[in-house]
Design a protein that fits this description.
Layout: E1 2-7, H1 14-27, E2 31-34, H2 51-61, E3 65-70, H3 79-92, E4 97-101, H4 106-109, H5 119-137, E5 142-144, E6 150-153, E7 164-168, H6 172-181, E8 185-188, H7 192-207, E9 212-219, H8 224-235, H9 242-247, H10 251-257, E10 271-272, H11 276-289, E11 293-298, H12 303-318
Parallel strand pairs: 1-2, 1-11, 2-3, 3-4, 4-7, 7-8, 8-9, 9-10, 9-11
Antiparallel strand pairs: 5-6
Helix pairs in contact: 1-2, 1-12, 3-5, 6-7
């Protein structure tokens, strides 16, 4: 199982994240992925650099693969722009860049002034966007009218290796849909029975034999108390359901929505423990479930401690 590092643009400035991804590379991580946000999940996080600028610098600074979780549904980004951005990175760093595509969240899209569609329409938009992107990567000139209009779009710079287009899924319905169009699936850690349902749905939808990827939200610190406080301070929005989180628009709304969340409410969505053995045991379970890649997101601000202390033990178990 490949073990990578997750770079959270919501929590750290691009320059800090570049430093951390270099540390992660030196520590032995085998890849990285990052978020692509216009706003953070809450005011305490406080950042949201432009992921596409950072990706070029990060891919130049290290020699492992890096992916990004983004959405091309035609609100903030037209899919032709995402295809062009991916083609540019793919040309400079062949085979090392991939994209996880999802239906998006209002917080990252609504600033563009367009109507926020319901989930069913966003799924339809995602399918159209993927069709446009694949046609462009195939060298076609694309003209189509639908939920996303495109007129005589052509990619004049195409990469020697097409970036992987991975489906981001949080529910079985979305996972089943991704099985038909995606080169793989990425999800986040949830209770094991829910993860099993996602994997089964993806495979039933056409994803058999395709890689499955897990983004692990964890909190590791010298004590359990500190680890839990870090998780609560920085990532308590994980207690919200995906349907609620997708429709909130501003960091202040996320703060309001999580006002009554308790630190103990995070156990299903964040792996909180100062015990390196427990963290390793959870990852071994991921491997047994069939995940091909995991990307570790330590949700606290103690990134250097996490990379230096946690990973020395964890990575040795998988390399």
């Amino acid at each position: 199982m490949k073990v990578g590092y997750h770079a959270s643009h919501e929590q750290f400035s691009p320059s800090e994240l570049l430093h951390y991804v270099k540390l992660a590379h030196a520590a032995g991580f085998q890849g990285a992925m990052c978020s692509d946000h216009f706003a953070p999940w809450g005011r305490s996080q406080g950042q949201s650099g432009f992921a596409w600028s950072w990706l070029g610098a990060a891919l130049e600074a290290v020699d492992f693969d890096i992916g990004v979780v983004t959405t091309p549904i035609g609100l903030r980004y037209h899919p032709a722009i995402i295809a062009q951005a991916g083609a540019t990175l793919g040309d400079m760093y062949p085979g090392r860049f991939w994209m996880a595509l999802g239906s998006g969240e209002a917080m990252n899209e609504c600033f563009a002034g367009q109507r926020w569609p319901a989930k069913a329409e966003r799924n339809d938009r995602l399918i159209e966007a993927v069709e446009i992107m694949r046609a462009l990567y195939d060298g076609q000139t694309v003209t189509r009218s639908g939920l996303i209009s495109t007129e005589q779009a052509t990619l004049y710079t195409r990469p020697p290796i097409i970036p992987r287009l991975v489906g981001a899924a949080l529910t079985p319905a979305t996972a089943r849909l991704a099985g038909g169009w995606a080169d793989g699936m990425v999800t986040i850690n949830q209770p094991r029975n829910k993860l099993s349902s996602l994997i089964s749905a993806f495979r039933e939808g056409g994803g058999t034999g395709k890689p499955i990827i897990l983004q692990v939200h964890l909190s590791y610190a010298p004590t359990d108390e500190e680890a839990r406080q870090n998780a609560y301070d920085q990532w308590r929005t994980n207690a919200l359901s995906s349907s609620v989180a997708a429709d909130l628009r501003f960091p202040e709304q996320f703060d309001d929505a999580t006002r009554y969340v308790r630190p103990t409410d995070l156990d299903d969505s964040i792996r909180i423990s100062s015990d390196i053995g427990q963290q390793l045991s959870w990852l071994m379970e991921d491997k047994e479930m069939g995940f091909d890649e995991v990307y570790l997101h330590n949700v606290g601000r103690n990134q250097e401690y996490f990379i230096r202390q946690f990973c020395e033990v964890i990575l040795r178990s998988f390399l």
